[in-house]
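TICKET #2291
ISSUE: user wants both folds in one file
ATTACHMENT 1:
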Amino acid sequence: MTGFIFRRLVQSVFVMLAVALIAFAVIRFVGDPLESLTSQETRLDEREKLKEQLGLNQAVPLQFFSFLKRGIQGDFGLSYRQQEPVSRMIAERLPATLELALASATIALVIGGILGVYCALRPNGFVTNLLMTISLVGVSLPTFLLGIGLIFVFSVELGWLPSFGRGETVKIGWWTTGLLTISGWRSIILPAITLSLFQMTLLMRLVRAEMLEVLRQDYIRFARARGLSSRTIHFGHALKNTLVPVITVAGLQLGSVIAFAVVTETVFQWPGVGSLFIRSVQAVDVPLMAAYLVFIALVFVMINLIVDVLYYVLDPRIRIDALKTGI
């Protein structure tokens, strides 16, 4: 298993190098940084000094290696717009995004998994048909439209929940959390539901389809012939084998929750990394855009690595294939 993880780590390093090259190209070739940092009143000697400080007078390969070195240290330069370190700006907003992603992923995995198993065990029931119909709405409904609808119903009409913001937060070291306050919990409900609906309906349909396929296998028939209880067959055999393909989709969807929380954070004015990225695009703040690209790539690489390890642990066929092929 150690060799398997090492090979996946090496592959992850090459992926991050490719993403770093793309991010560097964005910084280097999308506009002139000096034009964003200076004005018409800036003297020529000041421009040259700034160019030397940014390393723009070096050869392009040297600039790339310098970018890699600073990126490994967590330094992505200064924001063109706010003149603050990009890493610090992302770190300040990262807790909000991670908490929103954790809450929405929990809702999607728990509710989607339970409903998927229920629909698989009762494939022709009225409730199953109703859930499958509603799931089509959840898959096709745009996120921003769902968010606006929830705000209208629960904030404007009923007045139960706040329509924007993160609520009151508590600082624990460098981490700020709203999960320790009542207003924080009330504020996260609507954006978490909005962000989780698509993932939840997708996982529900996937779990249902995979479990129905597993229940048709010969070893399930043999288990019934041996007189095993329905609980043992459904949850001890069928569900375990259903989870193998579901893990991949669940992992990628978790990455998507973090990467594409941009729309939800914008609708609910959630102070996360996604809304920061939108502002950086509007202001053509290239260092922030590049840092966000690297951050999202790192999230997907880490999730894929975890999924590969879980695959290796849960499915003995993958372990056998890895031993045979050396992959």
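ATTACHMENT 2:
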Amino acid sequence: MDCIKCNSSQVRVIDTRAKGTRRIYRRRVCMMCGFRWTTVELPVGDVRQAVDAVNGLEERRGKKHTAKR
């Protein structure tokens, strides 16, 4: 994974936590710029359900964008 701020590939995981049995939260830090962010890992089926839910909401609101799978 690359830093979302400076695009450096020197990123380290500083904390990992499981939320239930299906989500893993990882706290990451860039070794170049010091920026910190959190990532969430989900099973593929959960990601597809989330994308479908977002697409359904946008269709009901009349928006033209769709989330990508």
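RESOLUTION: both attachments delivered.
EXTRA DETAIL ON ATTACHMENT 2: The helical segments are 44-61.
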